[in-house]
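Reading is simple: each integer encodes one residue's backbone shape. The lines below illustrate:
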Amino acid sequence: MTTIKDSVHDHIAVEGVAADLLETPPVQRLRHIAQLGTVTLVYPSANHTRFEHSLGVYHLADRALSELGIEGQQAERVRAAALLHDVGHSPYSHNVEAVVHRKTGKYHDDVHELLDRGAVARVLTDHGLNPDRVADLVAGDGELGQLVSGELDVDRMDYLVRDAHHTGVPYGTIDHERLVRELRFVDGQLVLDEGNVQTAESLLLARALMNPTVYQHHVARIAKSMLRRGTERLLAATNSTADDLRRWDDKDLLVRLRRCAETAEYARRLSERDLYKRSVWAERPAVPDDLLDGEFRDVRALEHAIADAANVDPDTVILDVPPEPTMKESSSRILVNGEVRRLGEQSTLVNAIRAAQHDQWRLGVYAPESESERVGEAAVRELGLDMDGARVRDVRHGIHATLDEFN
């Protein structure tokens, strides 16, 4: 058994299949992938990695299995899946995942081909575990897959607490000990036991508060958009593939961006935090509905149209259209008077949080500071933004929400 000191869970005991998996290259690679990607440009102390998060998920999974009375090979399979749940992440975590998915059709939790060969496959097989069944759990399949990837998964419990700890933001603080202790299976569904409506609400509220302050902070979004653009150009300009990209770590990607003439400027700006500025920061009512359904090629066409109208290089315009906000946590199941109910059916907070998320949604158009004004004016025209019907936050005129002033 190996005991590891953790900043969130104190001491984590790692044994069995997890102890052997810990030393495999795919797991060790996670030491070099930032948990929050470009968020570290906003919160300098948010330098924790996917490796320590994976340890935390393993720890909480082990605790949950004990509370649920699950033992033997079933439990070992879940522990393995918990430790391996992030090995499919590309550099900078979720920041370039959209590029990988567009090229390969795979998200980070599609890890079958990563687990069925090499050191990981050997360790799993030596412990009598089928790699495909472990990969299924990582994807959230089956009853026990709900523990690893679901509405009440231990992944979410760890990252909220860990991200809050490392950013210094208090909003992600949740009672993860109680959450783990109150988990139950009812007719194959993972639920929280009686008397835990507020416990489930805390998970929902924590995520809703962390979104605007951490995960969707405008500086992190700008940097993510620049990193994504640079990565797209790197793949187009070199022999590197999306499959190669998926196995790199943060340093691998940054070095390749620096060495490629077509992407070196993106690498410089990201390294020196010389980021693009917000030319437009538009609220949801100002944005035409058809913009939300735009495919990647449509977004690129709009960026070119804005650039042409502003008479700037198309590579200096980035259109950032986030998806409509979702609340997976509202589907969490809880026991109320012996009946399994969805949190969204039981909690009066859900609708309020859903409305708040809608209010926090922003479309962004980013460009270098010297060209930001021209790009902003062109973007309003080309995108058909409703300047009168809703606020369009044009940062040139200092129209900021209080939160947006930070950094």
Summary: The chain has a mean pLDDT of 92. The first helix runs from residue 17 to 21. The first strand starts at residue 2 and ends at 6. The radius of gyration is 22 Å.
